[in-house]
Amino acid sequence: MKFEIINPESLGAPKGWNNGLLAPKDGRLLFIAGQAGWEEGSAGSPPAFADQFARALDKVLTIVRAAGGEAGDLARVTIYVTDLAAYRKSMKALGEGWRARMGRHYPAVALVEVTGLVDRGALVEIEATAVIAGAP
Length: 136
Description:
Blueprint: E1 4-6, E2 20-22, E3 28-36, H1 49-66, E4 74-81, H2 84-89, H3 91-102, E5 108-113, E6 124-132
Parallel strand pairs: 4-5
Antiparallel strand pairs: 1-2, 3-6, 4-6
Helix pairs in contact: 1-3
InterPro entries: RutC-like_sf, YjgF/YER057c/UK114
Pfam families: Ribonuc_L-PSP (PF01042)
Protein name: RidA family protein
């Protein structure tokens, strides 16, 4: 299954995301609820930003795989962060973590800074939409 990347020249060349992905006609949509980088009831202390990002992305990918998909099936990702400065400071580590899990697949991505997340100690939460090929 192949996505058609939609990056109008008038919007400039994106780096690390796509402006849009057109899903194939025969794909099944998988809507993935927000997956936090830290759960309030977890033992120990919340990990650093990059580690929480990796943890949240791993949880998203666990759901995709449970539906019969793979990392390249992610069509859209929304990343919620409580500290945009921490996100920017962690960009190198975030990129390494992304590529380790996603390779060079870059879906349509939105980054949103929020004042807080439901789970205390969570610095990042990721929700996503995947398109899984074939019939159930």
